[in-house]
Amino acid sequence: MTQPLLREVNSAAKLEQADAESMPDGVGATVKALRIAKQLSIADASARLKYSTRQIEALEAEQWDALPTGVPLRGLVKNYARFLETDVDALLAMLESQVGAPTTSPIVLTTESLSSADLALLSDAGPRSSWGWLVVILILLIVAGLYAIERGWVPDTWLVFDWLRSLKQ
């Protein structure tokens, strides 16, 4: 009585082990397996994603030196994951574990790295430059309003002042 039960447990364990062994390890193998499971060719993926077949083949073969680094590589993997309708975050985590987190260095501006002309431009730019545009827009609105009154496009009931009515005649 216990023998058939043990055989079922052993066969289930063997199936799980075979499934674990057949599961792809990296990002490239995973997306390749997903693409094949959806019965898509590399040309189909290339046409849909707007990446070259060479880039997709390099990704599936995990040839990192043939691919861009950092954010563009993450974008490629993210778009491919969306196309294959799979978990984007899981694939990005796999990518980070394989190639490392994208490194970004902040841009630091110092007075030594800037010329005097650059410093003059930076000191001139300020909040007062937006006032100039406000004045220009206000003048254009006034001119357009006066033109509309002169052409008779504005009803008399809107003209509250007598000098505005004199413009209409």
What does this 3D model show about the protein?
With about 170 residues, the protein is mainly α. It folds into two domains: about 80 residues, 434 Repressor (Amino-terminal Domain) (Orthogonal Bundle); about 40 residues. The protein contains nine helices and no strands. Helix 5 packs antiparallel against helix 6 and helix 8 packs across helix 9. It is elongated, with a radius of gyration of 33 Å. About 5% of the residues have low confidence.
Which tags fit this structure?
0% strand, 169 residues, mainly alpha, single chain, 9 helices, elongated, 2 domains, 434 Repressor (Amino-terminal Domain)
What's a concise summary of this model?
The protein has 169 residues and is mostly helical.
What is the strand and helix layout of this fold?
Layout: H1 2-22, H2 27-37, H3 42-49, H4 53-60, H5 71-83, H6 88-99, H7 116-124, H8 128-151, H9 162-168
Instruction: Write the CATH fold name of the largest domain.
Output: 434 Repressor (Amino-terminal Domain)
How many independent structural domains? 2
Amino-to-carboxy terminus distance: 111 Å
Question: Structural class, please?
Answer: mainly alpha
Mean pLDDT: 78
Query: How much strand content do the residues show?
Result: under 5%
CATH homologous superfamily identity of the largest domain: lambda repressor-like DNA-binding domains
What is the name of the CATH class of the largest domain?
Mainly Alpha
Helix content: 55-70%
The profile of the biggest β sheet is: none
Q: Which residues sit in consecutive blocks of at least 5 with pLDDT less than 50?
A: 15-21
Q: Rg to the nearest angstrom?
A: 33 Å
CATH-level-2 architecture of the largest domain: Orthogonal Bundle
H and E string: HHHHHHHHH
- Count every helix, treating DSSP H or I runs of 4 or more residues as helices: 9
Q: Report the count of strand segments.
A: 0
Shape: elongated
